[in-house]
Specification:
The complex is a heterodimer of chains A (177) and B (372).
Chain A: E1 6-17, E2 20-34, E3 43-49, H1 56-67, E4 74-78, H2 90-106, E5 114-125, E6 132-142, E7 147-158, E8 161-170
Antiparallel strand pairs in A: 1-2, 2-3, 4-5, 5-6, 6-7, 7-8
Chain B: E1 3-6, E2 16-18, H1 24-33, H2 45-58, H3 78-91, E3 96-103, E4 109-115, E5 124-129, H4 136-152, H5 157-165, E6 167-171, H6 176-184, H7 237-249, E7 252-260, E8 264-267, H8 279-297, E9 302-305, H9 306-309, H10 317-323, E10 328-334, H11 349-369
Parallel strand pairs in B: 5-6, 5-7, 7-10, 8-9
Antiparallel strand pairs in B: 1-2, 3-4, 4-6, 8-10
Classes of the chains: A alpha+beta (177), B alpha/beta (372).
GO molecular function, one term (chain A): metalloendopeptidase inhibitor activity
Family (chain A): Belongs to the protease inhibitor I47 (latexin) family.
Pfam family, one (chain A): LXN
């Protein structure tokens, strides 16, 4: 508890590679939730002890696959109702997962717990430069309220650059739901 | 009446909108008068929906002829699950019977399978799955449990001795209206499908509708909320049916309500931070149950009271059952912890059901050992 500032949490975590459960890295972090202004995202500082696994090869394969598509990629419902993800969509899902992490961070308070529930729709946006751009419509599940929140995010990526969310906005729920 | 499917976000960004027929001409005129270009993505949304429904019905599997050819490793429709129940009863008439405990808002039958080796009103265990319709791994696990009981009731020593003295009641699709809705309209639907006056929003959270701290903090009074508690306790027929059953039976000793996801084993209370009198015993049972569960595939579960482990929740099922005197009241949150969430891949159904069954046996056997 920091008077007039907010609540600070000191965390010790173990990061586990989603694709290789035996590959782990220790991490320490400090998260500060600001008092008062709930629109301010929490401050996050972190230190990774050691190195994250190199993913250059997989990144380049995915990048080249998308670059070589004749038409811009379009897909929906990833995973589908039965939890299926076509193998070629797996990198698209992982990219959304990373990008949604940014959206979740920016919208978190001490009383929220968000998860990416589903990609409803993804559309590749043509670009003249070397970046890949995807326009995602995702569903976030907020644990405490149990709400499913539609969200739009525009994601930029290139193998040598980190993922960027250049634009995102909360979407209205459908009248039929 | 415009229904925005992609909301306005600024100049230069497209907007997607579904337009009801009467508004079509006025909207087009308005856009044209203001120099806003548009294109038609879908000529007739209703036709598309109708076509999809037809495809779904046509592509349905042939109904299996026995519970031995039933595919436990996939998700099934309500009709398929109800057909499974009838098959199971027909194949095992001396062990299994089907009881209708009531009807849902949309008048679907609420079925409970009774597993009994005889006697009259024996002490019993209750298990329910699918109270929140989007938690598909739970109904699927319920189907698996039903078959498992039949398969093991003679050769598994523990289960055999349990059934010598106790009955098992299993409600597989506790919220059939919601379940059908998740298959036809909205995979993420959680609540019932009731309409209550004064709101356009549909549905009540069946796990906030019980008479335990009803309407208190930990539930919402807003009909549009996912945790709406409803106009009064037991307003939902799906809940009332279980309440009536439990009260009429009068001899239920263990009550387990199954949800997903988060990988948790929880005991009361959710509506208050006052610990239950039997806290220590329930905590110990939870520890053993979770150990048994992890022994199979290493799946990690946390356990504790609802309020200390997840959040405050009022009007919850097991708070009510505990207060009715059913000491061994537990809630499970099954796999996973968020990677797939509600959309758990079908290939995880059987492993999830298998490991959960081990935990259920710990709870049931403890109840058996502590019958008066």
């Amino acid at each position: 508890d920091i008077d007039d500032v907010g609540h600070k949490y000191h965390l010790e975590l173990v990061l586990e590679d989603v694709l290789d459960k035996d590959s782990t890295v220790n991490c320490t972090a400090e998260v500060l939730y600001h008092l008062g202004n709930k629109n301010l995202p929490p401050d996050v500082q972190f230190t990774i002890e050691g190195e994250l696994k190199n993913a250059d090869e997989a990144d380049n394969i995915f990048y080249n696959q998308i670059k070589s598509l004749e038409k811009e990629l379009v897909a929906e419902n990833i995973p589908d109702s039965h939890g299926n993800v076509p193998p070629e969509m797996e990198p698209i899902r992982l990219l959304a997962w990373v990008a949604s992490g940014y959206v979740i961070w920016q919208n978190s308070t001490e009383n929220t717990k968000f998860q990416l529930a589903q990609i409803k729709h993804v559309k590749q946006v043509k670009r003249s430069d070397e970046y890949l751009e995807f326009d995602y419509r995702i569903l976030l599940h907020e644990m405490v309220s149990q709400e499913i929140i539609p969200w739009q995010m525009t994601v930029l990526w290139h193998p040598q650059h980190s993922v960027q969310v250049t634009q995102d906005s909360r979407q209205p729920k459908h009248a039929s739901e | 009446q415009l229904d925005f499917w992609l909301a306005p976000r600024g100049p230069g960004h497209p907007v997607d909108v579904r337009v009801p027929f009467p508004s079509l001409q006025p909207l087009k005129a308005h856009l044209e008068a203001n120099g806003v270009s548009y294109s038609i993505m879908i000529e007739d949304v209703q036709a598309l929906v109708d076509h999809e429904r037809m495809e779904m019905l046509r592509g349905r599997r042939q109904l299996p002829l026995s519970t031995n050819t039933f595919d436990y490793a996939t998700y099934h429709s309500l009709d398929e699950i109800y057909a499974f129940m009838d098959l199971l009863v027909a194949e095992n008439p001396n062990l299994v019977s089907k009881i209708e405990i009531g009807r849902s808002t949309e008048n679907r039958p609420l079925y409970v399978l009774k597993f009994s080796k005889g006697g009259t009103n024996r002490p019993a265990v209750w298990i329910d799955t699918g109270i929140h319709s989007r938690e598909w791994v739970t109904q699927a696990s319920g189907v698996w449990f039903a078959k498992k009981i039949v398969l093991d009731h003679e050769n598994d020593r523990d289960l055999a001795s349990l059934l010598d003295r106790m009955d098992i009641f299993l409600e597989i699709v506790t919220n059939p209206d919601g379940f059908v809705f998740t298959q036809t309209q909205n995979r993420m639907w959680r609540k019932t499908r009731s309409r209550h006056s004064g709101s356009a929003c549909i549905g009540v959270d069946p796990n906030r509708n019980w008479d335990a701290g009803f309407g208190g903090p930990g539930a919402s009074g807003n009909p549009c909320s996912e945790t709406y508690h409803g106009p009064y306790a037991n307003s939902e027929p799906e809940v009332k049916a279980i309440v009536d059953f439990v009260k009429n039976h009068g001899n239920i000793k263990a009550f387990v309500s199954i949800h997903s996801y988060s990988q948790l084993l929880l005991y009361p209370y959710g509506y208050t931070s006052t610990p239950v009198p039997d806290q220590q015993e329930l905590h110990q049972i939870s520890k053993e149950a979770v150990t048994a569960l992890s022994s199979l595939y290493g799946t990690n579960y946390k356990y504790g009271s609802i309020i200390t482990t997840i959040y405050q929740a009022s009007g919850g099922t097991i708070d009510w059952t505990y207060n009715q005197g059913i000491k061994y009241s537990f809630t499970f949150e099954l796999r996973d912890t968020g990677r797939y969430g509600f959309l758990l891949p079908a290939k995880q159904i059987v492993p999830t059901a298998q490991e959960t069954w081990l935990a259920l046996k710990v709870i049931m056997l403890h109840a058996l050992d502590h019958l008066h």
